[in-house]
Amino acid sequence: MRAIAVTPGEAGSIHLEDVPKPSVGEVPEGRGVLVRVLRVGVDGTDKEINAAEYGAAPPGQDFLIIGHENFGVVEEVGPNVPDTIRPGTYVVASVRRPGSSIYGQIGLQDFTTDDFYYERGINLLHGYLTEHYVEDARFVFPLPANLREVGVLLEPTTVAEKGINHAYEIQRRLKVWEPRRACILGSGTIGLLMALAARLRGLELTVFSLPERPYRNADLVEELGGVYFSSQERTLAEVSAERGPFDLMMDATGFSPLVWEAAEVLGKNGVLVLSSITGGDRRVEIRSDAINQSFVLGNKVMVGTVNASPADFRSGVDDLIKAEALFPGWLAQLLTTPIQGLERYDQMIRALTEDRAAIKVYVEVNGS
Ligand code: BGC
Ligand code: ZN
After folding, report:
1. How far away, in angstroms, is 310 Cα from ligand 2 center?
2. Of 15, 166, 174, 185, which has the maximum CB count within 10 A?
3. Can you give the C-alpha Rg of the chain in angstroms?
C-alpha cells in the first residue's frame, strides 16, 4: 500500500513509499484494530518535518510515514477489543505512545519526562498518511457516525481540550473559580478550536490575532458569539481594557513575544495556557518587574500544554458533538482545503506552506 513519507534530516524529501499492509495480529493480546484511513489533516508540525527541522524515523529505518491528524473506519478487530469498536466504527487514534517514564505507564504519556518521545507520524513511529494502519485498541477512540464529515478535526481539538481541561483542573485550587471571560491568542485551526472549547464552556469570548478583516476566521469567531480583534488595529492591553480582565487566556499564535504581553494583562486569579511550539531563537525585552509583581499579587498561573490524554480525546468527541448541535456547519467551514489522494503530496505541501487563506489542509485517502 502507498504512504506519504519523508527522509528525516533531508529537507523537501517528501515522497510516496510502498509499504506492506499491516494486520491486526501485529498488536499483542488480541487488542489490534485494523483501520482504513479516510482523511488525514496536516499542520505546521508536518511542514517542519518536511523541512527537516523536526521528526525522526523509526529505529533502523530511513523513512518516516508522516501524518498524525487521522480519521478512519475500522475494518477488522482482534478478539480482545471492546465492543465500542467494531468493523464499520469511525475512529481516531491518538498520537503519543508510552516511553519509559511513569506517566506512560499510567496512560498519561502526554506528561512524559523522557528526553525523547514516541509520536506516530512525528517521532520514531510511522504515522497515518497511508491506506491502512493497525493500532492497539487502547489508543483508538470511537466517534459517532454523525461526525463523519468533521471527525478529522478531533486530534487538533484534543490539543485545545487538554489546555482548557487543565486550566479548570488547576483552578480547582481556588474552590470557587467561576471564569467569565476568555481570550484566545491566534486564529489558526488550534486558536479557532480553543475559541470553540471556551464558548462551549459558557465563556465570553475574545480572539486576538494578526490578520485584519475581511478575514474568514474572524467571521467564524463571530459565528460563535465571540469578538475578534486584529493586532494591527489594537494592542492586547487595549483589548483587555475593553473586553477583560480575562480569567482564561490561551495562546496558539506561534509568536512567543505575545506571551509576555498576555502575562501582563491576565486577570487576577487568572490562568494563561501556552501551546505554541516555537523552535526559533527569538528574544524580546519584557517588563519583568511588572509581570512578576502582577503574578505574585494576582495569584496568576502560566502553564504549558502539549499533546493530549485519553480524557481529552473523550471531551474532544463530546465537544465536536456539541458544536454540531449548537453551531451546525461551523466545524465543516474549517475544512477549507481538501487534497484528493495520497499521490498529490506535492499539492498538500504547497497548500500547507503557501495558501495563507487555508484553515485546515487535509488529504482524502482511499478516494473517500
Ligand atoms: C501534535 C501533537 C504533538 C506535538 C509535538 C503537534 O502538532 O498535534 O500531538 O504532541 O505536535 O510533537
Ligand atoms: Zn499537530
Report:
1. 16
2. 185
3. 20
**Calpha distance 273→306 (Å, rounded):** 10
Mean pLDDT (whole number) for 163-178:
97
Distance between CA 144 and CA 161 in Å, rounded?
A: 18
| Position 169 pLDDT exceeds 90 | yes
Q: Which atom of ligand 1 is nearest to the CA of 54?
A: 12
Whose Cα sits closest to atom 9 in ligand 1?
307
* Residue nearest (by alpha carbon) to ligand 1 atom 12: 122
Residue 226 backbone class (left: φ over 0; alpha: ψ -120 to 50; beta: rest): beta
3-class state of residue 60 by DSSP: coil
Collapsing DSSP to helix, strand or coil, 190 comes out as: helix
Distance 299 CA to ligand 2 centre (A): 32
* Average predicted confidence (pLDDT) for the chain: 97
Q: Judge whether residue 367 has pLDDT over 90.
A: no
Euclidean distance between CA atoms 267 and 238, whole angstroms? 14
Atom 4 of ligand 1, nearest CA residue: 307
- Residue of 43, 141, 190, 306 best suited for mutating to test ligand 1, as the one with most atoms within 8 Å of CB: 306
Q: 238-289: per-residue pLDDT in tens?
A: 999 999 999 999 999 999 999 999 999 999 999 999 999 998 899 999 999 9
From 46, 108, 115, 119, give the residue whose CB has the most ligand 1 atoms within 8 Å, as the site to mutate. 119
List of domains in the chain:
2-149+335-364 (3.90.180.10), 158-304 (3.40.50.720)
Angle at 37 between CA 33 and CA 41, to 5 degrees: 125
Provide the pLDDT confidence category of residue 77 given band limits of 50, 70 and 90.
very high
Q: Which residues line ligand 1 (CB under 6 A)?
A: 43, 45, 68, 95-96, 119, 122, 155, 159, 306-307
Q: How many Å is the maximal CA-CA distance in the chain?
A: 61
